[in-house]
Amino acid sequence: MVDYDAAVAAVQDPNADPILLAKIAYENPEFGANVAVNPRCYPGLKRWIAEFGDERARETLAQYGFTAEAFGGPVQDQEAPGQAAQQAAEQQPADAYAAAQYAVAQQTAADQPAAEQYAAQQPAAQAAFEEPVATNPYGFTAEQALTTTDQMQIAQIAQYAPELRACIARNPNTYPALIEWLGQLGDPAINAALASRQ
Fold first, then answer.
1. What is the rounded CA–CA span in Å between residue 140 and residue 158?
2. In the chain, is it the N or the C terminus that has fewer CB atoms within a 10 Å radius of its CB?
3. For the chain, what is the mean pLDDT?
């Protein structure tokens, strides 16, 4: 649990670490309202607080126009693969290139199990991106950024190794709030990586 004095200092710091703010909101819910108004509170954290925070935090966010409904309603469980495929079939892409890719993906889905599909797509997807050179002093590598499943490590790489953010954007294990934050940075390499996820 975050120390009370450290939490008080962090929520009042306009340059507070967003990861620390998330940890404070989770471990010290009484600080939810203070975290929500901190300028470093990212949209995904505001959504989480709007849905799971205490009453004071939800009221504070509502005053700023942030409610769980404003962010698309409560967080939903992911759909079963069959339902997702059925919905994807109902929503055909508009342009010819996307339609061709969709048809190839549908044929591949019919021919291969999911694990084989993922493995088959990885070399082609990774070949399209130039691997960044890790320059951070923390020892994070592009391989870690692309493959780690540890959510805390993903957050640390995003914070301490900005040169690896495009790799984090390509990692299928990156949590949605971080994906949303990465999309707001406006970095062309990150945007290309995010587009390759879809």
1. 10
2. C
3. 77
Residue entry with tokens 């998330």: 22
Half-sphere exposure of 103 (CA within 13 A, CB side): 7
| H and E: helices and strands count for the chain | 13, 0
Q: What confidence score (pLDDT) does residue 92 get?
A: 45
Helix (H, G, I), strand (E, B) or coil at 145: helix
SS3 14: coil
Extract the tokens encoding 61: 């966010």
Is this model's pTM higher than 0.90 or not? no
Q: Which helix (H) or strand (E) holds 89?
A: helix 81-90
CA-CA distance, 59 to 52, in Å (whole number)?
A: 12
Alpha-carbon distance values, 188 to 5, 76, 87, 182 (Å): 39, 30, 30, 11
CB 57 within 8 A of CB 49: yes
Q: What is the pLDDT of residue 178?
A: 93
Separation in Å, CA 87 to CA 80, 81, 176, 196? 11, 10, 20, 20
The DSSP element (H or E) to which 35 belongs, if any, is helix 32-37
User: What is the token pair recorded at 52?
Assistant: 């799971």
